[in-house]
């Protein structure tokens, strides 16, 4: 065990990372926070587990008159790479603000599976609590914090009661969780998730923090960025909705003009918005009252009786959650016909006593017509389109409306892995292209079903597809 004294260093702006690959986290040169000089004691390479360097942590403890709270930080890296040394700046920054901080390593894929990784997190938290008196902080005021894949592991630890019980950490000792750009449901298909989490449905369900949420969870700070990795902002909103449903205090932040990396590293910069927000939460993690969602109206376009039946079922289920879905028959399966019906409904909404229609949706042929509809946010007030199993043109021909305007309408592309392979592939390519062009795009693939079957089987207590639909229209 090594104990060294040092002062906080100044961050070199040239070390700030730029872009990164989906669901990954770039390794960066170790750096420290820009802040006034403050004395911090650092205990390096403390062994909490039996896995060599992957089972150790660095502990940053500020000089304080009374034992401070302690934050355990789990870094990102697609569950496959990264090292605590790259994140010394986070420990320095938090210690400089009066919080002890443990920056941890865990085992990584392919040498460990996610269940083993989260058990490493639990063992590390138990070590931190058990050695509180030795190192000089309060072991009964614990916080967990993570970024990217680290936010997934930190949230799993915070919400799964059995993990804490297995290592004898009282649930009452965990005072809050700070979750930055995480994946909170790993059941949808994605190449990176399939590789790390495998294909077993039950294991993927167990590894999804969202399903472990209950009313006894600690308060949560959940954040994402405007230019985050695709679908991570939706994941954050799904989690926030779920926490509010069970009356757990949640502080939700979405950082404009920021990406997956920069708002996180701004935690090391005094005065940065994300830093102020996180510190405010750590100092006062309140159990806030649930917020009432504003009314939402979705226009569902149906081109035949089958599509109409699916839409009417979705309307019934979403209606329980305060979302009104109006099912309209398209005069013809064209984008222009969809736009005419949508605008007609906007004109008539006061007479019909409806909230302004702000979303449009469809499945199969209806979805294709919705994709081609010449509707925009600026002119028509369209906030988003939901396209279920839409067979789109390979080159995106006729879809210029999806990118139009200074702020294009959001886009949800959803299909199942039993839908036609060609349609899935095109949706994936076009979804990535729209996202790169600045369209907020969520491309979701459900396992073991088609989009139409999943919608037809939707239930009011569904915990996979329904939360995504609610979150998308709740933006």
Description:
The protein is α/β, with parallel strands linked by helices and 475 residues long. It folds into two domains: 2-283, 3-Layer(aba) Sandwich (Rossmann fold); 296-473, 3-Layer(aba) Sandwich (Rossmann fold). Helix content is 35%, strand content 21%. It is built from 17 helices and 15 strands. It has helices at 88-96, 114-130, 132-135, 149-159, 161-166, 191-197, 201-206, 232-245, 262-265, 273-283, 305-320, 335-352, 365-372, 377-380, 421-436, 451-456, 465-473, and strands spanning 2-7, 39-47, 56-62, 70-74, 100-104, 142-147, 174-180, 220-227, 250-259, 296-302, 323-329, 357-363, 384-388, 410-416, 441-446. A nine-stranded mixed sheet has the order 1-2-3-5-4-6-7-8-9, sandwiched between helices. Strands 11-10-12-13-14-15 form a six-stranded parallel sheet, sandwiched between helices. Helix 2 (114-130) crosses helix 4 (149-159), helix 8 (232-245) crosses helix 17 (465-473) and helix 12 (335-352) crosses helix 13 (365-372). The protein is elongated, with a radius of gyration of 23 Å.
What fold name stands as the CATH topology of the largest domain? Rossmann fold
CA distance, first residue to last residue = 48 Å
Which consecutive residue ranges, at least 5 long each, have pLDDT under 50?
1-37
Spatial ordering of strands, largest sheet: 1-2-3-5-4-6-7-8-9
**Beta-strand percentage range:** 15-25%
Total count of domains: 2
> Which class of secondary structure composition applies to the elements?
alpha/beta
Radius of gyration: 23 Å
* CATH class membership of the largest domain: Alpha Beta
The DSSP helix count reads: 17
CATH architecture of the largest domain: 3-Layer(aba) Sandwich
Count of DSSP strands: 15
Mean pLDDT: 90
State the shape. Answer: elongated
Sheet of most strands: 9 strands, mixed
- Percent in helix: 25-40%
CATH superfamily of the largest domain: Alpha/Beta hydrolase fold, catalytic domain
């Amino acid at each position: 065990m090594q104990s060294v004294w040092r002062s906080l260093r100044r961050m070199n702006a040239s070390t700030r990372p730029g872009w990164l690959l989906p669901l990954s986290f770039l390794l960066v040169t170790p750096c420290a926070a820009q802040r006034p000089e403050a004395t911090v004691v650092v205990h390096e390479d403390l062994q909490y587990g039996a896995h060599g360097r992957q089972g150790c942590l660095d502990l940053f403890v500020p000089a304080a008159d009374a034992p401070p709270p302690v934050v355990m930080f789990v870094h990102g890296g697609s569950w496959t790479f990264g090292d605590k040394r790259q994140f010394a700046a986070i420990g320095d920054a938090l210690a400089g603000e009066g919080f002890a901080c443990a920056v941890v390593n865990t085992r990584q894929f392919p040498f460990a599976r996610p269940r083993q990784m989260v058990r490493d997190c639990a063992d590390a938290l138990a070590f931190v609590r058990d050695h509180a008196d030795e190192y000089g902080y309060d072991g009964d005021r614990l916080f967990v914090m993570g970024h990217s894949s680290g936010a997934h592991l930190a949230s799993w630890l915070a919400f799964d009661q059995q993990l804490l019980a297995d290592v004898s950490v009282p649930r009452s000792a965990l005072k809050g969780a700070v979750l930055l750009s995480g994946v909170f449901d790993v059941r949808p298909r994605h190449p990176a998730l399939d590789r790390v989490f495998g294909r077993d449905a039950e294991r993927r369900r167990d590894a999804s923090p969202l399903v472990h949420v209950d009313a006894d969870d600690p308060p949560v700070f959940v954040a994402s960025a405007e230019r985050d990795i695709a679908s991570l902002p939706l994941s954050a909103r799904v989690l926030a909705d779920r926490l509010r449903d069970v009356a757990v205090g949640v502080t939700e932040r979405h950082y404009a003009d920021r990406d997956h990396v920069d708002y996180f590293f701004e935690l090391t910069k005094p005065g940065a918005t994300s830093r102020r927000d996180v510190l405010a939460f750590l100092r006062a993690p309140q159990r806030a009252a649930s917020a009432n969602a504003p009314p939402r109206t979705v226009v569902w376009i149906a081109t035949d009786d089958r599509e109409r039946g699916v839409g009417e079922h979705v309307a019934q289920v979403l209606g329980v959650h305060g979302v009104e879905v109006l099912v309209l028959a398209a005069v013809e399966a064209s984008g222009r016909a969809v736009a005419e019906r949508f605008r007609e409904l906007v004109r008539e909404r006061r007479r019909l006593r409806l909230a302004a229609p702000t979303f449009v949706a469809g499945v199969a042929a209806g979805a294709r017509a919705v994709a081609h509809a010449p509707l925009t946010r600026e002119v028509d007030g369209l906030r988003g389109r939901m396209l279920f199993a839409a067979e789109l043109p390979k080159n995106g021909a006729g879809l210029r409306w999806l990118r139009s305007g200074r702020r294009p309408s959001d886009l949800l592309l959803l299909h199942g892995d039993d839908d036609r392979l060609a349609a899935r592939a095109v949706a994936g390519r076009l979804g990535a292209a729209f996202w790169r062009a600045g369209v907020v795009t969520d491309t979701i693939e459900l396992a073991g079903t088609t989009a139409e079957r999943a919608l037809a089987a939707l239930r009011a207590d569904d915990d996979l597809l329904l939360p995504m639909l609610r979150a998308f229209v709740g933006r």
